[in-house]
Amino acid sequence: VFSLFVLAMSIQSCFRMTLLKFSFASCAAPFSASFLSPLALGFPARSAISMASTAPSVASATKKVLVPIAFGTEEIEAVVFVDILRRAGADVSVVSIEKDLQVEASRRVKLVADESISSCEGKMFDVVALPGGMPGAARLHDCEVLKRITIAHADQGRLFGAICASPAVVLEPWGLLENRKATCHPAFVDKLASSFTVGSNVQRDCLVTTSRGPGTAIEFALSFVEQLYGREKLEEVSKPLVLRPKDGSKLAKDYNPQKWLAINSPQVLVPIANGSEEMETVIIVDVLRRAGVDVVVASVEEGLQIVASRRVKIVADKMIEEVKGSTFDLIVLPGGMPGAERLFACDALTTILKVQAESNKLFGAICAAPAVVLEAHGLLKGKKATCHPSFAGKLQDQSAVELRVVIDGLVITSCGPGTAMEFALSIVEKFFGLEKAISVAEAMVFQYP
To answer: Which of 27, 120, 164, 367 is catalytic?
Structure first.
């Protein structure tokens, strides 16, 4: 009986690998994420092999995507993927592998999944994408239900991928990277057994796509947009993100340089509302906490949980009324609509912001918020600022709207999700210096400045 069992398992394994090899063999050649249009993405061009007609076809009209999360999942990687795929029109399920739907991510951002992993077994998905982070990736690896779903998904010749630690910690030991070109976070490269390990930000080997870290998460997500929907949709989704210029230039300016001082660790308030842009929110919080900043996320809604602009559910640390008497070195507003409008309409936040400005303390905003909140409350009077291009007409001073990050004394503003990393790292640089900002950026596999 045991021999028959072993034989059956061997046949199943051989069948799976044969199917995968057959699927991959149908592609002209493995290639990296450089197939994405540099013009659309705003990333530096690399040598590429064209996809031509070799992309795997997906039958369903509405693309269904599974994104599992766990305790210690990297929140930027999870949220960016969900946000961008939902922008493209995909039906994305954020799934908890934990007992509860609420999960505390690696930098203590509290996310709420849409459903439990147990409810997904037997369902069909067009994409399974695994975020990284530790111990999140290790917990994904240990989830037997997720393992069964992902292996069955791969057996059926469907798209799958992983970023950061997960290619090495999850896909590799599950046998899904055998003879595949793959990449991962530099700290985990030695765990990839494949001799085809590469250093590109995004590596695609037909059905499987891998990437390196939070700083490459947007590229990773956009690679799936093109695989699922094509180049026209890729360009449509990319444009409003305000991605980095293709030459990689920073395009930031400090018009009135002043030293940003904080006693001990800087205290930063990030207010959020229903409709806040989740990428901007999570990138700001994650990056600042990596730098050692004490960040308080405060809800302006009736409860701690908000539903962001692309339906990601985030649980704040406190209610805005609870922090009215607190002192903050910096207040930073994420954008997104109608989130920015709800921040503007919050009386408690308005009072906090005006006291902050009157006390000559730091404040800033990104995307729609500089125009919809700061300008509308008269807090940008005499200041140069930037914002999302679709709201730039609302700024009285138009002289700096083409820049990605603008600092004018005690005020810092930026443009959108694609500038959020630069925005947050500029704050780190102002508080701690350039060397610290570069160190934080390198750990995320992001080039700064």
So the answer is: 367
